[in-house]
Amino acid sequence: MEPESYIQESLVFIILIILSAFFSGSETAFLSLSHSKSAHLGSLKKRVRARLDYLGERTQELLIAILIGNTLVNLSAATVAAVTTARLAHETGLNPTTALTVEIIVVTLILLFFSELMPKIVAVNNPVRFAAVVSGPLAVFLRLVHPLSWLLSHFTDFVSRLLGVHGQKYSLKQEELMTLVEVGEEEGALESDEREMIDSIFEFRDTQVKEIMIPRTDMVCIRSDASLAELVDLIKTMGHTRIPIYVDKVDNIIGILHAKDLIPYLKQKKEISLQQLARPVIFVPEYKMINDLLREFQRKRVHMAIVVDEYGGTSGLITLEDILEEIVGEIQDEYDKETPLFRKIADSTWLVNAKIDLHDLNRELEIDLPTEDDYESLAGFLLSLTGTVPREKQVIRYENFDFTIDKVEKNRIVMVRIRLRDRETGAESPTKTAHTDR
């Protein structure tokens, strides 16, 4: 046999190995090209994106076509190698069995490494780029074998139904949805407030009542022996339409008073015991998830619940509005007189309400205070650093932050000034140990 024939057969074998790598890599690339990664195709040409969409809509048919192509080229490569080896053994006097055994081992290793491992590793690490490169020839091949792949696809569906196997639609994971949201904001399809609302929805199911409740110290309640006039004055002063009523102490709440229930008695100028006007109250533990509480509110048609700790004492209260605000943000009505939880008063300096949730503070100021411990608010974080109630004007240093206690009421931190030192001075961040200046 002429040397040129061996060269030609070797070239054919190499081409078949390349085609095998093409099909193997294509399979991995399109399986790895999830919906979230497809969102990053904006930098590709419109024609390439159209091809990828075309192929992505025909996943089953595409995979069958790839398997057809891969099977054909692998069989062809093995056949070419076997024929060439047999001829070489015949011409050189080698033992045919030994030669074919060596050929099988060598071809298997070549196919395994160059046609399977290498292209799959490249494709899984760069699925978008790989899919974009192979989409053109793959689309042509899909059309060429369409009759066969269509037939096999329908046969596969028929067999699956016989076996009781039903195809499952692709479902996005939370991480992939968040990636889509990020891309949507970057591309301008989502506004920042829309992005925040979507983030809040994902966090909603992981939020506990204690994280958003109104703490006991901020609750507006009334004694059961108070007069109707006192209740009216309290409602006018505080602007609340629902007031918890208690006997002796706040740990013994017996009901909720509704402002609209007072109207008939105000018109008649008739005195009545507040306990008679109280509506039933529901009690919920601190660790109840707010999505479960929302469903309970809907089921029982109530708007307020009293939060109790593990010992049965009143820990705070939570309203339907508090839960909804976790999704849509602060809801201000004509009675709300609350000042913003934070405002910028100078470069790298903010005046912050100490009750602000640390997650919200980190997001709004783009900082990274720790949120893993038992505290939820800025006040809790500062108390964990000092181990005692700080006095007004005391400065607490943590990393590159200066926390100046602006206001304290009844052993409670109310307002704090936060200054981020490195933004002004470029100073290096100190250690994470907290220091206080008294």
Describe the model:
This protein folds into four domains: about 5-160, no CATH class; about 175-205; about 210-330, CBS-domain, CATH 3.10.580; about 340-435, Uridine Diphospho-n-acetylenolpyruvylglucosamine Reductase, domain 3 (2-Layer Sandwich). The protein starts with a helix and ends with a strand. It is elongated and about 115 Å long. With about 450 residues, the chain is of the alpha+beta class. The longest helix has about 35 residues, at about 60-90. It is built from 18 helices and 13 strands. The strands form three sheets. Strands 8-9-12-11-10-13 form a six-stranded antiparallel beta sheet.
Instruction: Give the uncertain stretches in residue-range form.
Output: 423-433
Mean residue pLDDT = 83
- Percentage of residues in strands: 5-15%
Number of strands: 13
Q: Please compute the radius of gyration using only Cα atoms.
A: 35 Å
Distance N terminus to C terminus?
97 Å
Provide the spatial order of strands within the biggest beta sheet: 8-9-12-11-10-13
Number of helices: 18
The domain count comes to 4
Class computed from helices, strands and strand pairing? alpha+beta
| Global morphology | elongated
Helix content: 40-55%
For the biggest sheet, the summary is: 6 strands, antiparallel
